[in-house]
Design goal:
Helix content: 40-55%
Radius of gyration: 29 Å
Strand content: 15-25%
CATH architecture of the largest domain: 3-Layer(aba) Sandwich
Distance between the termini: 74 Å
CATH class of the largest domain: Alpha Beta
Shape: elongated
Largest sheet: 7 strands, antiparallel
Structural class: alpha+beta
CATH topology of the largest domain: Protein Transport Mog1p, Chain A
Amino acid sequence: MNCRDVREMADSFLCEELLTETNHEILRHLDTCPLCRTEIEARRRLRGALRDAFNRAPELQPSVDFRNRLRDQLSEVSLHRARPWAWSGRWLALAAGIVLAVGVAGVVFMKRSAVPAEALAQDAVGDHQNCALKYRLVRAPVPLEEAAQQFDSAYRVLLSAPPDDISTPGGVARVTERHSCAYGAHRFGHVIMEYRGRVVSLLMTADDGMGNAGQDAIPHVIGRPLNGLSVVSVSGTRHAILLVSDLESGELARLSSAVAVPLTRRLEVDAAPAASTLAALLAPVGVASSTDASHGPWLQPQ
């Protein structure tokens, strides 16, 4: 038995599907061929890793119907494995199984990511409607300083950021109210703004699994408009910042780039005081660091 034979039968060998005599021939070959031993061991580790990953995720387990159909197909292929063309069909079946597994895992991952984002967007829309527009919240708003002491110290940033008047490419956004309020399952730091004759809510809350540590903060639209209101989110390492308004979603995303993105970066700077303090100590006197300069005048930590 040569290396080609062993590699063609490697998966059957690992599945214990071969005759005893064939297994002995492969084992004799492996005793004298380090390359084939490495190949077999690599395949064994891969199979074990895939099996363990699926075993740890019950929702990824295949249905009974799928297992029955796959078993029947593999049995049919095994009956013809002596034919050279049958191996190509076997590899195709294996590839199809892997593609299916990856697809299922991807769908589950996207669903897991979409659920908290959609739930957060619904609460953000509800807060905007019942606080910024109609003033009929069940729980009364709380001053930001009080909320910072009780719930989340990051709310303190909203006392001064964004500033009362924000110049954007689309015009000036003017802050009319700052407080903390709660709607549904979320507590928000709430900054109400007027922009181009529309009311816009900037809402900051603890991140719901949407964080993007180590990546650029980029506005993205969550779902479709709900009750005529669009939601744009920017996620940092610990907090999500959302803009809600009846503005068109593209225009709201542009406003988010001018308002929410700088605020997200400000929060990330404040979340790492040790690093910024060390940089300040090492910087020459009278020279601002490049990091601080890039944040703009209202991004400097207080």
